[in-house]
Amino acid sequence: DTAVSQTPKYLVTQMGNDKSIKCEQNLGHDTMYWYKQDSKKFLKIMFSYNNKELIINETVPNRFSPKSPDKAHLNLHINSLELGDSAVYFCASSRVLSGAYNEQFFGPGTRLTVL
Amino acid sequence: GEDVEQSLFLSVREGDSSVINCTYTDSSSTYLYWYKQEPGAGLQLLTYIFSNMDMKQDQRLTVLLNKKDKHLSLRIADTQTGDSAIYFCAESWGGYNKLIFGAGTRLAVHP
């Protein structure tokens, strides 16, 4: 039973294309996230949604647009892909309890390669 | 600003103890976390510590927190080859939804 799933696992595409990555969680969590992990393994948050509302929006090019159709899904659409977008993208989810404990559950990642 | 720092590499012999260190910046962080990432996989929460604690022990894992110096460490006793992974320290920042991760420490365990 997969908790946080992402599709596709690998994505190879040409510069200038538009692509989407999908994420689903079956944990009943109310908050979902997108992270970008670069080749040096540095992990940086991009977006977060709580109950379908955008609550974190880091300094990310507006070519990246997240969409949350419901609490269990958070998709990431990327327009006009650039070489620098090549990375592993992780989706995560959490239920933020009182007292601010925030255990995040991560998906397996989507490795995006832009040629 | 937001910054969590870790050393990038650690190599230990199987059976020895490993100590991974981390410094963070947000003194108001309520919880601090250690995540583990195995090759080709996402991150998994390994352990965490509440900010009013100095130490937390969980089987082979010991977390030490020095709030004055904003220093966090993870000790793995009797390190095994299965412990080879990247370990990320994380702090909560400016509100409970945002976690700031360190660059990760790659632990290599050799016979």
What can you see in these coordinates?
With 115 residues, chain A is an all-beta fold. Helices cover 0% and strands 55% of the residues of chain A. Chain A has no helices and 11 strands. In chain A, a hairpin with a 2-residue loop joins strand 5 (43-50) and strand 6 (53-57). Chain B is 0% helix and 55% strand. Chain B is built from no helices and 11 strands. Chain B is mostly beta strands. The interface between A and B is medium-sized, with 26 and 23 residues.
Structural key phrases:
A: 115 residues; mainly beta; 7-stranded mixed beta sheet; 11 strands; B: 111 residues; globular
List the helices and strands and how they pair.
The complex is a heterodimer of chains A (115) and B (111).
Chain A: E1 4-7, E2 10-13, E3 19-25, E4 31-37, E5 43-50, E6 53-57, E7 64-70, E8 73-78, E9 87-94, E10 105-106, E11 110-114
Parallel strand pairs in A: 2-11
Antiparallel strand pairs in A: 1-3, 3-8, 4-5, 4-9, 5-6, 7-8, 9-10, 9-11
Chain B: E1 5-6, E2 9-13, E3 18-23, E4 31-37, E5 43-50, E6 55-58, E7 61-66, E8 71-76, E9 85-92, E10 99-101, E11 105-110
Parallel strand pairs in B: 2-11
Antiparallel strand pairs in B: 1-3, 3-8, 4-5, 4-9, 6-7, 7-8, 9-10, 9-11
Derived from helix and strand composition plus strand pairing, the structural class of chain B reads mainly beta
Largest sheet of chain A: 7 strands, mixed
Mean pLDDT of chain B equals 91
Shape of chain A: globular
Unreliable stretches of chain B (pLDDT < 50, length at least 5) are none
- Structural class by SSE content of chain A: mainly beta
Query: Count the strands of chain B?
Result: 11
Tally of DSSP helical segments of chain A: 0
Q: SSE order of chain A in H/E notation?
A: EEEEEEEEEEE
Mean pLDDT of chain A: 92
Q: How much helix, percentage-wise, in residues of chain A?
A: under 10%
Largest interface: A-B, 26 and 23 residues
What radius of gyration of chain B results from the CA coordinates?
Answer: 13 Å
Approximately how much helix is present in the residues of chain B?
under 10%
Main sheet of chain B, how many strands, which sense, barrel?
6 strands, mixed
Number of strands of chain A: 11
Query: Which segments of chain A are poorly predicted (pLDDT under 50) over 5 or more consecutive residues?
Result: none
